[in-house]
Write a structure and sequence with these properties.
17 helices; 25% strand; globular; 22 strands; 506 residues; ABC transporter ATP-binding protein; single chain; P-loop_NTPase; cell membrane; alpha/beta; 6-stranded mixed β-sheet
C-alpha cells in the first residue's frame, strides 16, 4: 500500500510541531523518518494514526484521501503502529492482548480466545517470532514484547506499519533481530515507516531516508550517505560523532566496592560477589548485555536494593545500608536508566524537577516554604546552560522530548558538588545532538576530578567514554580491561569469556 502525506501541519498553541510536511512511502518500502528528539517525527505519525487531527494537509492511501476520526479508523484502513512505549496489558496473555479492542465472540457470546491463539500462532510461525500465545506479557523480555506489538498490528491486516523509535529499549542483539523482521515484512509487501534518530540503524535497513528538523522536512538522503552527512542534516550544524577527551589522570581511590552480592526476594543471586574500585578523575564503564546484573548493581550502589551484602565505601565512609536520601546528600549524583519512571515526575514542571534532590533544604526551601524567586532564577540558568528546549521553566516535564527530559535530569544532578557521579544508560533514546551534549558533560565531570561510573549496553558509548571497562555476565565480573580494548574482545567478554592476560587490567 502506498502512503502519502501532503502538507501536514499540526500546531499546539503557538508551537508548530509539523510545518507543511510532505512524505511518500511506496508499497513494500522501508522509509526512515530521521530527526532529533522534538523534531516532530512522532507528532506526524500520531496524525497519521488518528491520535491527532492536523490543522492543514491530507493523508492518502493508494491515492485515496482518508479522513480518520481516531485510531480505529486508521487501523481499519490498514495502518498499524508499534509505539516506543508498548501498549500492552502486563497481566494479560499474548492472545488476550492481541484481541483487546477487536474481541471476537463465539457460541453464547463468549470471547473466542482460541481464535486469537490461532492467529498469534499463525503470524508467529510466518515470521519466525517464536511467541507463546498463552504467555503472560509481564513475563516476556522486552524484545519479545515488541514482537507482540507487531503481531497485534498484523492481526488487524496492517499494510502500512509505523515503528516509532522501536530500538530505544532493545539490546544490540534484539535490535539486529528487529532489523531482520522489518526486512521480512518489507519483502512480504508491507510498507514501513521507521522513526528513529540512530544513524547506524537507518543506514542498515532503510531504502529511503527523509530528514526533518524543527517540524519541517529539510531533505531526503540515501542510505549510502555518511553518518556525518545525516547528522548535519538532522542538527543543522556539523556534529562531532567522536568523543574528544584527553587521557585520564586518576587520583586516589574514591569508590571501593568489595564482594557485593544482591539477592532477589526469592533468594536468587542477581549480583554475585562483585568487587571494583573507581578513582577520582576517571570513568569506569560497566558493560554487558541488558539483564546481566548491571541494573541491580546500580540500584545497590544507590540504596535501592534491600537484600545486599558486601561493602560499599566512598572516600572511606560506608554507603551500604543507607537510604537513597542519605546517599544523595553524601554527594552522589545519579542518572537512572529509566528517566520517565525513576528520574522525573512528569506532572511537575521543569523548575520543580530541578529541585527534587534538594527540595528539603536551603536555598530552595526555608521554614518549609519554597523560595520561588530563587527556584525561578536557578531553573532559568540551568535551562540555558543545558540547552533544555521548552516553552519555559513552567512547562510540564512530561511534555518534553526524551532528549530534553534527559537534559533536565543531568542539569539537576550536575548542578551540585559531587563526590561520585553514576549515569545509567545516559543516552538511551537520545538523538546525535543530545548524545554529543551528554558525552561532553560526562567528560567535563571526569576532568573536574569526580569519579564517574557509566552503565551502558551501547558498545560505541562504552568505547568512547571509558578509561576502564568492567564487563558483567550473569551477575559476575568477567574482567576489567582498558578503555581502548577492541570491540571484538568486549563482545566475547559480554558472552562470558574471560579476557586474556594481555587484555585484563585491575
Amino acid at each position: 500500500m502506498k502512503l502519502e502525506l501532503r502538507g501536514i501541519t499540526k500546531r499546539f498553541g503557538a508551537l508548530v510541531a509539523n510545518d507543511h510536511i510532505n512524505l511518500t512511502v511506496e508499497a513494500g518500502e522501508i522509509h526512515a523518518l530521521l530527526g532529533e528528539n522534538g523534531a516532530g517525527k512522532s507528532t506526524l505519525m500520531n496524525v497519521l494514526y488518528g491520535l491527532y487531527r492536523a490543522e492543514e494537509g491530507e493523508i492518502l492511501l493508494d491515492d485515496v484521501v482518508q479522513h480518520f476520526a481516531g485510531p480505529g479508523d486508521a487501523m481499519a484502513a490498514g495502518i498499524g503502529m508499534v509505539h516506543q512505549h508498548f501498549m500492552l496489558i502486563p497481566v494479560f496473555t499474548v492472545a488476550e492482548n492481541v484481541m483487546l479492542g477487536h474481541e471476537e465472540t463465539g457460541f453464547g457470546g463468549h470471547l473466542d480466545l482460541p481464535a486469537a491463539r490461532r492467529r498469534v500462532t499463525e503470524i508467529s510461525a510466518r515470521f519466525g517470532f517464536d511467541v507463546d500465545p498463552d504467555a503472560l506479557v509481564e513475563d516476556l523480555p522486552v524484545g519479545v514484547q515488541q514482537r507482540v506489538e507487531i503481531i497485534k498490528a498484523l492481526s488487524r491486516d496492517a499494510r502500512v506499519l509505523v515503528f516509532d523509535e522501536p530500538t530505544a529499549v532493545l539490546t544490540p542483539q534484539e535490535t539486529d533481530e528487529l532489523m531482520g523482521i522489518m526486512r521480512q515484512l518489507r519483502d512480504s509487501g508491507t510498507s514501513i515507516v521507521f522513526i528513529t534518530h540512530k544513524l547506524r540503524e537507518v543506514r542498515a535497513v532503510a531504502d529511503r531516508i527523509t530528514v526533518i528538523r524543527l517540524g519541517a522536512v529539510v531533505g531526503e538522503a540515501s542510505p549510502t550517505a555518511s553518518n556525518e552527512e545525516l547528522a548535519t542534516m538532522m542538527v543543522g550544524r556539523a556534529v562531532d560523532l567522536t568523543v574528544d577527551k584527553s587521557p585520564a589522570e586518576p587520583g586516589a581511590p574514591a569508590l571501593v566496592v568489595s564482594d557485593l552480592t544482591v539477592l532477589d526476594p526469592h533468594g536468587q543471586v542477581l549480583v554475585n560477589s562483585v568487587s571494583f574500585t573507581v578513582h577520582a578523575g576517571e570513568i569506569l564503564a560497566i558493560a554487558g548485555v541488558q539483564g546481566n546484573g548491571q541494573t541491580e548493581l546500580t540500584e545497590a550502589l544507590m540504596g535501592l536494593q534491600p537484600r545486599v551484602s558486601g561493602e560499599i565505601t566512598l572516600d572511606g565512609s560506608s554507603l551500604r545500608g543507607h537510604t537513597v536520601r542519605k546517599i544523595l546528600d553524601a554527594g552522589v549524583g545519579f542518572v537512572p536508566e529509566d528517566r520517565t519512571e525513576d528520574g522525573l515526575v512528569s506532572e511537575f514542571t521543569i523548575a520543580e524537577n530541578l529541585m527534587l534532590d534538594r527540595s528539603h533544604q536551603p536555598p530552595f526551601v526555608k521554614r518549609f516554604n519554597v523560595q520561588l524567586s530563587f527556584l525561578a532564577k536557578f531553573a532559568e540558568d540551568k535551562v540555558k546552560e543545558f540547552d533544555v528546549r521548552s516553552q519555559g521553566i513552567d512547562t510540564l516535564v512530561g511534555r518534553l522530548s526524551g532528549g530534553n527530559q534527559q537534559k533536565v535530569v543531568l542539569a539537576r544532578e550536575l548542578s551540585r558538588e559531587l563526590r561520585l557521579f553514576i549515569a545509567a544508560q545516559p543516552t538511551r533514546g537520545l538523538d546525535v545532538g543530545s548524545i554529543e551534549f551528554v558525552h561532553e558533560r560526562i567528560i567535563a565531570t571526569r576532568d573536574a576530578g569526580t569519579p564517574v561510573i557509566v552503565i551502558s549496553t551501547e558498545l560505541d558509548e562504552v568505547a568512547a567514554l571509558a578509561d576502564r571497562i568492567l564487563v558483567m555476565f550473569r551477575g559476575r565480573v568477567v574482567g576489567i580491561v582498558p578503555g581502548d580494548t577492541p570491540r571484538a574482545v568486549l563482545g566475547l567478554m559480554m558472552a562470558g569469556e574471560t579476557p586474556t592476560e594481555e587484555g585484563a587490567a585491575a
